[in-house]
Design brief:
The structure is a single chain. By secondary structure, this protein is mostly helical. It has one domain (3-41). Helix content is 64%, strand content 0%.
Length: 47
């Protein structure tokens, strides 16, 4: 999965967030795909 390509980071914080998504917990929970979908659609995440 090329998350960096899909997220198109503009700041160093974006790169750090991208790297942090590829830890075992977030990957098992499907977070990389969710974050990519939100970033591409420019949706707002509500908790």
């Amino acid at each position: 999965m090329d998350l960096v390509g899909r997220l198109q980071p503009r700041h160093m914080q974006d790169v750090i967030a991208d790297i942090s998504l590829f830890r075992p917990g977030p990957v098992k929970g499907g977070m990389p795909a969710q974050v990519a979908a939100i970033a591409v659609s420019h949706a707002v995440l509500s908790l």
